Model the fold of this input.
Amino acid sequence: MLILKSSVSKLLFVAFILMIGCRAKDDFPGLEYAPNMYHSVPYEGLSQITDESSGKWLSNREDGKGEYFNSNPNNPHGMNLREPVDGTVKRNMSGYMPYRVHKDSVDLAARILKNPVEKSDEILSDGKQLYSVFCQACHGSQGKGDGKVGEVMLGVPAYNVGRVKDVPEGHIFHVITHGKGRMWPHGSQITIEERWKIVHYVQQLQQLD
Amino acid sequence: MSTTAMITKGFYSTAYFIVLSLLFSASVYGQDASSIPTDEGIISQGRTLYNNNCAVCHAIERQLVGPALKNVHERQSVEWLKAFIINSQRVIQSGDQYAVNLYNQYNRTEMPAFDFSDDEVMSILAYIKDESAKEPVQAAASDTGDGSQAQAQTGTAISSGYITVILMALLIVLVLILIVLAVLISVLTKYIKQKTDLDEADEELVSQKVDFGKLVRSPGFVWFASFIFTAIVLKAVIDGLFSIGIQEGYAPAQPIAFSHKLHAGQYEIECQYCHTGVLKGKSANIPSANICMNCHSAIVKVGDSDQPSAEIQKIYDAIENNKPIEWIRVHNLPDLSYFNHAQHVAVGEIECQTCHGPIEEMEIVKQHSNLTMGWCIDCHRQTDVNSMGNAYYDKLVELHESKGKGPMKVADIGGLECAKCHY
Done:
């Protein structure tokens, strides 16, 4: 009875030590129950595992690689994400075609572009929301060039003074898309329709005193 | 080409010829600089123009995007300055050596053309000249600023210091009281022992000794101690078993020591600026290096350091070698379940912090929630569906209200269906 008791407590103690060690902390993600249900078999866009032997101990893959290996050897850098094929156009609800004015042709854009999105209160509030996400950090909440990042970045113009006050909608759209001066292109982050909504809101900020 | 354009062009080329030839004659400078007006009215007009157009990229004392403008009228002739302000690219393209050097020195940043009249340019120059003559007041002002800040800091330091001192004093007083009591007991016991006429009960009390060894070996204590020990170990084992498959607290070191505390906290950059997928797709997405470069093309140093930051250099390496940064994914939802960000953030209007915790305070991102099924279900049971102004829900709300079960929760519209997340 005494022996049984002591062996049980020893077992418990060993289990205790093991269990303390299996919590996720810092670089250790913790233990998994049934790991092959946790790890994606198809290529998983945002979790790339390039180590071929990763999870080999439970692998029953036909190619002999580890169960966790998740990386597409056909892509550059073994990435699971790929850029769209050159020349393909993403379908969108409003049927916008890609913006093709060359990045250096800001004056051309200023002359020829017209905002296809009709201005309304709803569009303006969308524009304001998008502005607060994508522009405000540098340009400031009122477009005075006094955003917190703008203060460090320097060279952020105010919308409502000088030459910026009078730039037309096409200019604004072009600058959001391709950048200008110190501002880098934001076309990859903001869709065409969203850019036009922002243009409406920025035009409102241009009119501020 | 219209006549006006031709005349303008002719005027400009003549102007540049004059400018270039004047560049080599030093005697012109004095004469030129003296032609800058010193009238108060003109200076104040210049101040307005300067603040609206130039201050974005130039300062008098400091180099910003472009060079510091202090005593700029001593560097070049007024004619040259005028030409450069009105259309800097034209001066650069004319091959003027000074302009070309300037252009290259400042990372080939184009100074935009300005449509100023002659008087306007002169007023700006007048303002710059006037400012240049003034003693730098900024340094003094910033000194006082630092001073008051330091004072404020000592203020808080003193108050927190006070608390520690008070606590320490209290502790010392308590220890002293304890010592005094112990001394009292020993003195009293000695005094009683000297007496011979004690009865039995008192005698026992005085000569009483606590035997710790005996107490520890007593079966009651052994039973109690082993019970407590087993209970603690069992609790830990069960907790440990329940922590299997939960990555709460996972905080891997990333290839670049990116701080959300700095970017999202201090600089208040919206989450969506970098995590662009959050309103549109399943994943919030990890930004590619070009999004980092939107700011870090210009921001090279960290804090007050003079040296370019080694961490920021890693972004440049990634861009130059076209090699993606291998960020380590923190939130690894098991493959057996489906989660969609757009559904929760765009439609459900849940704040990022609800699930991800105080990200804007995290130096290293840590998984805040446990992401278990129970955790999902709890929220689905408690959260009301915001059906206001959304016609999609009209019939569902009607149906729900006909059964009269209170507000419509996520659970009522299928938030507990297995196949919503597992398929």
In short: Chain A touches chain B through 59 residues (CB under 8 Å). Helices of chain A lie at 2-20, 35-38, 106-112, 121-134, 136-139, 148-153, 169-178, 192-206. Chain A has two domains: 29-83, 106-206. The mean pLDDT of chain A is 87.
